[in-house]
Amino acid sequence: MHIITIAWLFVTVMMALAEATSPQGTVLGALFTFLLYGALPLSIVLYLMGTPARRRARKAAEAEADAAALAASAVDPGRRGHAAGDAVAAERKEP
Fold it and tell me: What is the pTM (predicted TM-score) of this model?
């Protein structure tokens, strides 16, 4: 996948260079050529191609968090994720 990315960027840089050095071309045209033919489409394609990897990473992180919560509850079965109550009992008055 990286070789395709590098090759496409090379092609668009060459297109932009040809635009900039052409007698009818401008540097601004070369910049837009690079951005609209190279960087923008490539960023969209790479984002879409990376979606499965991000999904796998998110599921792995969720599984790891679930395993950590399960291990924590196995150590202290009464632990439910709630805040601790008062550590000292309230003083009772004699009747």
Answer: 0.61
